[in-house]
Amino acid sequence: MIGYTISRLLQAIPILLIVSLIAFGIIHLIPGDAATVIGGPSATPADLARIRENLGLDQPLHIQILTFYANLFQGDLGRSLLLGIPVTEAVLARSPITIGIAIYSLVLTIVFGLATGIIAALNHNRWIDQAATVFALIGVSLPNFWLALVMIVLFSVHLGWLPTGGYVPFTQNPIGWFRTATMPAVALALLQAGLLTRITRSTMLEVLSQDYIRTARAKGISEWRVVGRHALANVMMPVVTVLGLILSVLLSGSIVIETIFGIPGIGALLGNAIASRDYPMIQGGLFFITAALLLLNIVVDVLYTSLDPRIRVTGGK
Amino acid sequence: MTSLSDAAAPPRFLRTRALVRRMFANRAFMLGFVLFGFICLATLLAPLITRLDPNALSIRDRFQPPSLQFPLGTDNLGRDMLSRVLYGARLSLWIGLCVIVLNAVFGVLLGALAGYYRRLDNILMRIADALMAFPAVLLAIGIAAALGPSAVTAIIALAVVYIPRTARVVRASILVVRELDYVQAARAAGATDYRILMRHILPNCMAPLIVQLSFVFAYAILSEAVLSFLGLGAPPTVPSWGILISEGRSYLREAAWLTVVPGLAIAITVLGLNLLGDGLRDVLDPRMKVEQG
């Protein structure tokens, strides 16, 4: 277990190094002079010189890379041009908001995706199954930001049930938090719930056709117990495997969703950074989210091996 | 020599008439075909469907709800939404098409190099791992933010994001096919690497590739909408679906159709492509798994 965890962490290091190099390279993708683009049309030569110095763009490339890594290892991702504070500080300050909504959305995804998938599989080829399949397909085909806007029109503008945007911290007012976080969480959850429904349904169908399920039924166990105890354990495995993917879609979706609902999380932070050409923030945010996802994926894989003895025996994938 | 290795090659999968019959019998494929075909046809025939210029202003007709004169209503400047959605489709579909062509070319090239030349495999796949560690849309946003907003930027950003995923699919199927007996036979017969790869291995890797490309097309349309929505796609003078949604966003209260209609167009297209992909997967190889995301 510990050995596997350590080997996974070691494997992540080269990936993390390339990821950071790509994040570092983003500012060098800017066509022409980066300082001119960042400074905008009104920048004076002195402004440009200051931008270059601040970002280290006046240094040779290899020095820039070395400085970047030296800073990175000290947790320094540079300083936001827009906010004037360190990127790490800004990201850490905003992350609880994004994490809160991500967890809410994840719970919705898993509960809804699993339930729909299992119900569909249990009613294989009946109308419930078809409805669930259609729902799942539509779910994976809708743009989530569009869904967010349609929900605003429906639930805020017409029905007036929920506020069009804004954010109330959970610690201040839990009900207020649910009122502001529900539409963003649902908008983020729908696509993944569709994905999960599809995976759960096909796995469940496969599991239900296995011999041990027939044996369990032959023993006279109630259908509820057959599904709940015998089948569910094996259906959970693919759920764990797609967790990483679900989290990745959740976090990247948060840029647009948080911007639409005016939620001050990491997503909105990045959205603003894009709008104001705050490249250190874009690079730092990109690296931070990806690094967090890599770690989460390792946690998921370790979880997976501890849940499934078959993988533990063969020593991981 | 040549005839020996040719005889060993399997028939090209697209040639079989049975396959076409299976496709037409597959409900998912047919539904996807109809939906996506409908969108493509509407896009191509846009000038016949509507006479109105998508950019013609008519302040008198602003915010008209859907009517006989304007089937999908008009926007804040009195522009006809039907023609804007139809002409917007051109850009969205064109970007999607460019992305899958780039995906096909570079995905096959890199996947073949990694799968066939094992020495390159490690380095290529580590780079692919790193690129795939980024959430897809996030990396595209990062690249597009640096390159500056344009349609070409969106194409490059989306291609960079999805090529590693396609290369993985190609590599995975090459790893299986290269061990088959007939490939060994071709090698024993003295065929060159290039010939083995092009004539014997790649044709048998086409099925997963085609399925993957249909999904990449769907993702590309969705992601392009996100990029446009964030102001990182084509400039607003050319309406793409994402831009139409972001323009409509300011008028959610008075004219919700401005937002709803282009989103529905995206949904129909992506749904069609997803169904096509599902159907193709069932028809070409039921056991096949495609990397999502």
UniProtKB/TrEMBL annotation, chain A:
Report a single Gene Ontology molecular function. Answer: dipeptide transmembrane transporter activity
Report how it sits in the membrane.
Multi-pass membrane protein
Record keywords, A-Z: Cell membrane, Membrane, Transmembrane, Transmembrane helix, Transport
Q: Which Pfam families match?
A: BPD_transp_1, BPD_transp_1_N
Q: Which SUPFAM superfamilies match?
A: MetI-like
- The name under which this protein is listed is ABC transporter permease
| Protein family | Belongs to the binding-protein-dependent transport system permease family.
- Where is the ABC transmembrane type-1 domain positioned along the sequence? 95-304
Cellular location(s)? Cell membrane
Transmembrane region(s): 12-30, 101-122, 134-157, 177-196, 286-307
UniProtKB/TrEMBL annotation, chain B:
| Any one of the GO CC terms | plasma membrane
The UniProt keyword set, sorted, is:
Cell membrane, Membrane, Transmembrane, Transmembrane helix, Transport
* Stored Gene3D superfamilies: MetI-like (1.10.3720.10)
- Tell me the domain of life: Bacteria
Cellular location(s): Cell membrane
Listed transmembrane segments:
28-50, 91-117, 137-163, 209-235, 255-277
Which membrane topology term applies here?
Multi-pass membrane protein
Q: Which family does it belong to?
A: Belongs to the binding-protein-dependent transport system permease family.
Fetch the PANTHER family from UniProt: OLIGOPEPTIDE TRANSPORT SYSTEM PERMEASE PROTEIN APPC, PEPTIDE ABC TRANSPORTER PERMEASE PROTEIN
Q: What is this protein called?
A: ABC transporter permease
Organism the protein comes from: Arsenicitalea aurantiaca
